[in-house]
Write a structure and sequence with these properties.
The relative contact order is 0.13. It is globular, with a radius of gyration of 29 Å. The chain is built from 26 helices and 12 strands. A 6-stranded parallel sheet has the order 5-12-11-6-10-7. A 4-stranded parallel sheet has the order 2-1-3-4. Strands 8-9 form a two-stranded antiparallel ribbon. Strand 3, helix 10 and strand 4 form a beta-alpha-beta unit. The chain is an alpha/beta fold.
Length: 633
């Protein structure tokens, strides 16, 4: 690649195809290697597809997001639940739309439509599986009908792009580099077939033993078996002769101990390293907190003594429980860090505001009202809200009529022994304060309630909800919070406050696109919004220039880091116990596969890939690998 950039920096189109989670890191590495390039794309398959459609045409069809797709499936489930047999009870449960979305996305990835499902099931004498397929196929048909000629998603993008690659002038002159994959699904393979046919030249890297007949390549339990099977598929797709370049000597490791570990970790007969193991450290800790404390001190040590930048250091773990500990302890030690990965938006104050506001309309219960008021978006201090809540609980006040009363609130306690007992001046003052707070905070909720009830449609409900947020100046408040967190050095949290507003507005747009003016009960709208908020996930790029990256062990972009810290390397997490989460079990998939239907094997593939994931995680560091585990949680 360096030679190509040096020879023709402005003539040759260079395209890097990498997994989506590696694109940012790849851009940084390109900038470091070549100083950047004007004619280089670094993209995932989805972004690559959009580039093709933007060049050739076909990118104007409205796109439905992951969240929008789940909202649409939620509506389909509500309408179809009574007609289902196997999934009738599950269809109305919260979270089922997400599970169904995962299953349908997988089927579409493998180019399986409802008819193929039914044809395969007809060959299998299994009443339970046939009942599953009957329901799944019906829901699949409803989904395809709902998005027909209206919207598309990532699966549609890949299909459309594969058909249009032949018309792309950029592809015909491009050098394409594909890295970071050990497997390509059928849709990606279709794109690769077109790339092989029309691109100038294609370079693909795969992690394998350079001896193609090695047991680690050919055996099902071999470290590189999945990559080797992918290599065989690619050779068939290419059709003609391909050039194989073997990288026999790893160029990553700058420490002999790490090179020895890479060569011998999975050897059946262990070998003993006779050198100085300066590059590898194994730490046993009493518990997770002590483990993270030790990691923090060690990071400061290598940062100070070796001069390594924080951005050259990575932490990987499979246990999300470490994240809160890292946040607390690293802030104490003043170590800048970035938690890489998608952040759930479900617990953000804005999500809680929306949920509680909709819940208020179902009965005006105190618990929902004060959850709403405590989100921070109302013009009242926490002391005022506490005073109001204590008063409401003391007198058991509830109901819309009570909260919307024109008359002042004058509930107070009197002695039964003395009917002429007069209200004290302090109590009178308290009632005035409470009533003033009540009127101040409830005004916008009452306006929202009145507007919400005027019409039963998704568009009307979403519009009323947006106007409610606008009346509370939610965007302005989030901007204030963002500025405040930025001044405190909490850059990731600062970005979150702004991104959740954009994601929420997009959610409303997706609800309107999916459901529009169709009649919809208010309760169903509340369930759809709640499920949409649960599905919202925020992805951020590192906001700082020099931060330790904390990432997932199985999916990260920390290769070639100077130092890697592996937390929680215990038998609870390694090997990882794979649980079936999809609608189709491993047994179902095996039967469908026997019926000549190409479909993912499910958890069995994940279990076979475990050995490679461990290998990759332990070989990402260039200079230093720190492995630790706790004796107790």
């Amino acid at each position: 690649m360096r030679e190509i950039l040096a020879a023709a920096p402005f003539k040759t189109e260079i395209i890097f195809l990498v997994p989506a989670y590696q694109t940012y890191r790849a851009e940084l590495e390109l900038a470091a290697i070549a100083g950047g390039s004007l004619n280089t794309w670094i993209c995932s398959f989805q972004r690559f597809a959009r580039q093709i459609l933007a060049e050739v045409g076909g990118s104007t069809v409205p796109r439905i997001s992951d969240v929008g797709r789940r909202l649409l499936l939620r509506k389909i489930l509500l309408n179809r639940a009574k007609d289902l047999t196997y999934y009738r009870r599950a269809a109305i449960q919260r979270g089922f739309a997400e599970t169904l979305d995962t299953e349908i996305s997988e089927l579409r990835t493998y180019s399986i439509d409802a008819e193929k499902l039914r044809d395969a099931a007809a060959k299998i004498p299994d009443d339970e599986l046939n009942s599953k397929i009957h329901d799944l196929a019906a829901l699949y048909d409803d989904f395809r009908a709902a998005i027909s000629d209206k919207q598309n998603d990532d699966s549609d993008l890949l299909e459309r792009a594969a058909d249009l690659i032949k018309d792309s002038a950029a592809i015909r002159s491009a050098e394409i580099f594909i890295d970071g994959f050990i497997f390509f699904d059928p849709q990606q393979r279709k794109i690769l077939r077109e790339i092989f046919t029309h691109a100038r030249r294609v370079h693909i890297t795969l992690p394998m033993d350079t001896d193609l007949n090695s047991r680690e390549n050919t055996r099902d339990v071999g470290i590189f078996n999945r990559a080797f099977r992918t290599f065989q598929v690619l050779r068939e797709l290419a059709g003609g002769e391909i050039k194989i370049t073997r990288c026999d000597t790893p160029s990553r490791f700058e420490t002999p101990a790490l090179s020895f570990l890479e060569q011998n970790f999975f050897k059946r007969v262990p070998k003993i390293f006779t050198g100085t193991a300066d590059g590898v450290k194994i730490v046993e800790a009493v518990n997770q907190r002590v483990e993270v404390e030790a990691v923090a001190r060690d990071i400061l040590k290598v940062h100070r003594e070796n001069g390594w930048k924080f951005r050259e250091i990575g932490i990987i773990t499979r246990d999300a429980a470490y994240h809160d500990l890292i946040k607390a302890i690293f802030e104490i030690h003043e170590i800048p860090f970035f938690l890489d990965g998608k952040r759930a938006a479900a617990h953000h104050p804005l999500a809680e505001l929306i949920r509680s506001a909709l819940e208020i309309l179902r009965g005006w219960k105190a618990e929902a009202i004060f959850r709403c008021l405590r989100t921070g978006f109302f013009n009242a201090s926490q002391i005022e809200i506490d005073l109001l809540e204590n008063y409401v609980l003391e007198f058991g006040l509830k109901g819309e009529k009570v909260w919307a009363a024109e008359d002042d609130w004058r509930w107070h306690r009197r002695s039964l022994d003395d009917p002429d007992d007069k209200i004290s001046s302090a109590e009178t003052q308290r009632m005035r304060e409470v009533d003033a707070i009540r009127r101040k905070v409830i005004e916008q909720i009452l306006i929202f309630a009145g507007a919400f009830r005027k019409k039963n449609s998704a568009r009307h409900f979403a519009t009323a909800l947006y106007k409610f947020l606008d009346a509370l100046h939610v965007y302005e408040k989030l901007s204030e919070w963002s500025t405040l967190e930025e001044s405190r050095g909490n850059l990731a949290l600062s970005r979150e406050h702004l991104q959740i507003w954009n994601d929420t507005v997009t959610l409303f747009d997706q609800i309107v696109d999916a459901l529009d003016e169709s009649p919809l009960p208010a309760r169903e709208f509340e369930l759809i919004v709640s499920e949409g908020l649960d599905a919202l996930q925020m992805s951020l790029i590192p906001p700082g220039l020099d931060e330790v990256t904390v990432s997932n062990f199985d999916q990260n972009s920390l290769q070639n880091s100077r130092a890697i810290y592996v937390l929680g390397f215990s038998e609870n997490n390694f090997p990882l116990t794979v649980r079936e989460k999809n609608l189709l079990t491993d047994a179902d998939r095996l039967r469908l596969s026997d019926a000549s239907l190409e479909i993912a094997k499910g958890s069995s593939d994940a279990m076979l890939a475990e050995k490679f994931l461990v290998y990759r995680g332990l070989t990402e560091a260039r200079n230093y690998l720190h492995i630790s585990y706790p004796l107790a949680n």
